[in-house]
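Technical annex, item 7. During the second reporting period the consortium partners agreed on a shared format for inverse folding records so that results from different sites could be compared directly. Each record opens with the tokenized structure and is followed by the designed sequence. A conforming record, contributed by the partner at site C, is shown below for reference.
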């Protein structure tokens, strides 16, 4: 059976959630969009969770020979796939194996990320960007997540988990976007400030969200698939030299077969 993708259910889903966002969520989020080289912005409507220890480990249980599921895979029957008999399955969350600081594709002079490899695991070791007098950060790119989907997988969606902190306050999301070779989708953000006293975890995307692209299993399996993260100065915060910290980045994908 040929691998197929949900023909951008994010487009259909977005038209519904977009209305809900306009009616309700925009009281909390900056629900704005702009066409640019990175794609169209998409205010994230997913939940944020925090803890005193700064950790929220929601790793899925691994599949094994007894349940017939691949490793790191769980059934997710709560997701309506729109395909009778095709139960959703979730792989992840998985951590990447490669991290680097990359100049921004929009040409702005962002502050580099120091120790980017520290963003690969949630262990209180941080990738760090010191903005100084700059307006934003470079791209923190995390790739090589090691996804492997069954041959008959019907692709559904992607979720990114970002654990971050701004101990001196003064930072908000700039862009959180998938890295999919030869494709451009929508980046995501939340308008509220990065937490200062704890490490907060935010989830971007969800089970039926392909981030404004038609996505297939072959898009998430290569080593160069991943996510790029940028923070920017909160102009209203009045912080002279904010510091961005990222403790961990993980990705989950959903499919059915």
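Designed sequence (site C submission):
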């Amino acid at each position: 059976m040929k691998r197929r993708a949900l023909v951008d259910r994010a487009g259909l889903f977005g038209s519904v959630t977009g209305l809900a966002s306009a009616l309700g969520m925009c009281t909390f989020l900056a629900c704005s969009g702009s066409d640019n080289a990175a794609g169209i912005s998409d205010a994230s409507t997913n939940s944020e969770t925090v803890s005193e220890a700064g950790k929220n480990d929601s790793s899925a249980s691994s599949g094994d020979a007894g349940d017939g599921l691949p490793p790191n895979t769980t059934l997710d029957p709560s997701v309506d796939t729109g395909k009778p008999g095709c139960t959703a399955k979730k792989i992840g969350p998985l951590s990447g194996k490669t991290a680097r600081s990359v100049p921004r594709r929009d040409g702005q002079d962002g502050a580099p990320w120091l120790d980017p490899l520290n963003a690969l695991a949630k262990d209180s070791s941080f990738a760090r960007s010191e903005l100084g007098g700059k307006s934003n950060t470079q791209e923190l790119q995390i790739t090589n997540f090691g996804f492997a989907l069954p041959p008959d997988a019907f692709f559904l969606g992607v979720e990114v988990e970002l654990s971050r902190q701004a101990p001196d306050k003064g930072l908000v999301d700039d862009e959180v976007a998938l890295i999919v070779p030869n494709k451009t989708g929508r980046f995501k953000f939340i308008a509220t400030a990065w937490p200062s006293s704890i490490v907060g975890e935010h989830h971007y995307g969800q089970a039926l969200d392909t981030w404004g692209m038609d996505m297939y299993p072959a898009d998430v399996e290569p080593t160069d698939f991943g996510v790029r993260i940028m923070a920017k100065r909160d102009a209203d915060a009045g912080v002279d030299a904010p510091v961005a910290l990222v403790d961990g980045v993980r990705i989950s994908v959903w499919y059915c077969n």
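Residues 4-256 form one domain. The chain is about 5% helix and 35% strand. All partners now use this format for quarterly exchanges.
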